[in-house]
Amino acid sequence: MDIENVKNACSAAASQGPTGVSGSGPSGRSHAFDGPAAAVLDSRGAVVRWTGAAEELTGFRAEEVCGRPVRELVAGLPDGDLRDAEMPASGRVRLWHQCGDTIDVTFRTSKVGGSGSAEVLVLAAPTHHVADHEQGAALLRALSAQNRITIAVHDTDLTTVQTNATPGTLDGRPVQPGARLSDVLCAEDAEDLEAVLRQVLETGAPVVRRNQQVSWRHDPARQHALSLSAFRLEDARGRPTGLAALYFDNADQMRARRHLDLAREVAERVGGSLDVVRTAQDLADVLAPAFGDLAGVDLAHSVFDGDEPSKQLNAGNMGNAALAPANAVWPAGIKRGESIPPLPDHPLLRSFRHGEPVVFGLDEFIAMVKGPQLVEYLVPKDTHSVMVAPLHARGLTLGTITVWRCGRSDPFTEDEADLMKQIASRGALAIDNARRYTREHRAAVALQQSLLPPATTDTPAAETAGAYLPAGGGADISGDWYDAIALPSLRVALVAGDVVGHGMPASATMGRLRAAIQTLADLELEPDELLTRIADLVQRLAAEASLGDGDTVGGTCLYAVYDPVTRRCTMASAGHPPPVLVRPDGAAEAVGMSPGPPLTLSGMPYETTVIDVEPGSVLALYTDGLVERGDRDIGQGLRRLTEALAASCRPDRALDETGRALLADLADEAPRDDAALLLARTRAVPAEDTAHWEIPADPAAVSKAREWMTRQLTTWGLADLLFTTELIVSELVTNAIRYGRPPMDLRLIRHHLLVCEVTDSSSTQPRLRRARTTDEGGRGLFLVAQIGGRWGCRHGQNGKTIWSEQAIRDSP
User: Fold this and answer.
1) For the whole model, what pTM was predicted?
2) DSSP line for 322-370
3) How far apart are the first and last CA of the chain?
4) pLDDT tens for residues 346-384?
């Protein structure tokens, strides 16, 4: 082989390796070279050709090594002649450097001039640079082989110079060699990415994993997830020559993130309401358009009412509860609140009955229903994929979720079916909680309504109207109540009370207290004495309560008795807010009174307050839920209520309308405490319909009382009641003279009843008994009870009153 051939071989070998590599020996000295070192050995192993790169690597010049055995340059070589062994094709050795250091190199050998030649070409480079080069090449090959990573080198004009993308794969690659981003992406997306790449060129600051949704130019309707990483390329002088960009297909990561976001949104938004329809709508709103283009929730008809669904649930006994989006165009067969038409049996539906979501393609759905008209009736326009998932909770199938994908959106995948199963499970629990609450709330409302009195009453003493607002805007039934109790002698008792706690226990306690107050009211006790006995009852109820619940039994109460004859109202309070009196001229004020302790404290006295009430006045009794709220104290709330009553209680306005308006204006949208309001517009018995005499303590007064009564009934035109009234007056006056103490009074009241009252200063309680044949007395009250409508006795602070009532014919 001639010298010229060796030169050419060395030059070719040098061009195959990297340039600008350096090596260092044990002393740390750096040895730079411009390519792999090359040398030619003869058959004896002597150096016959030594390149400049070899000189740079070892520090030895050509004239110093040519003609010498190469073994003299190799450190640690065992004794022997290179001719004794075949030259290895490759390997690693340590070479001496002129400075005395050694250099770890990797070499390759090849015959020069063909197989018959004895000369050998040796190429060597520092081992660590060879390893770096091999690892870098392997890394580039691995990156280039990734399906979801596109590597592109752009010049300073952002034209693609090199890329691992192959022609014809635009769907998966953002660029092609020789193209620009605008040739592949939609104009807006390309402009955004090029702005980022220009910033990298200008600043040199790399961009790492910048996520962006892009659309291909040939398919602008479909979005793809792309992640960009880019860094600037520079020449030896640090000037930018372009940039390298890595485009990642981020679809899986973005899909997983969307699934997590959707699951989190379902957890946050679904279940916040205890209304079945509201919960179903929240579920549909979360799913569309985040999971599908359209979504609907269908529930068993019984679920709407809070009842359990039937075991054999099918489309025929379900109704639509929610649709989303609300502005979508739905087919005729899908309407909010309408029943769902039954579908034929199909193998796909059997997995649905086992709690698994079912995915239909449009063709599968058409084949299942076997009717193009039914498809048009039930399938939204442009639908290509449908997913149906059962709402299964606590062993009950409550209904279904249906999600449609339309137009150019992707079909449902298997992992999305798994996600829908989780969403349906959480949604079903929320709907079932709302269903169970609906059932319990309906029972509590029924109990509350059965325990409350009629909303309006009309008695000779007053017309009344009551209104009640549960806590939580109707969500929480509690123990506030009101009552209007008709009493003898045309009087009326007005009651407002508030029981501690919420729910069924509070309603039950309220019912027991209301029944007790009605019973005690029939005994015609004074307000202070009645509240004392109710407080004793509350103490007994607390003692009977289960361990730990005794502290929850208690409450407050206001009891007032209005007499239309005297036009006075007597009242007492057990820790309850005072009533508000609205006079006929519109002036309103809270009644000044001293409330006693709440009903939880027995044995404490209550103070009675008496006020004069003009006819046409309105007495307003209420509970603290109407005047207490978070942003104001009870004093501010009472002033606000007083002002509202003054403005609303007009004579020409119905009381029930006034009560509803006041509750709507004064209560919060979702009050934390329930509120009750009782309005009573007072009336008065005209003076000409009453008559009053003082009875002297003389037996002869009995006959005079009969004469007086006869004249009064004749004046009133009640001659048909003369005989019975004469007997009643004779017996009651006789008993008062015989057993009572003066002063004594006889009073007649005419209304729809004729009331006869005899009052004396004795506190002795009369008793009704059946006299024996030989008894000379004891028949008076028995006769009164037989000939009158009803009779009774009430005690006051200065004595007792025995009364008797008779119906007046043709009275309203």
Assistant:
1) 0.59
2) EEESTTS---TT--TTPBPPP----HHHHHHHTT--EEEEHHHHHHHHT
3) 144
4) 555 565 666 788 888 888 877 777 777 777 788 888 888
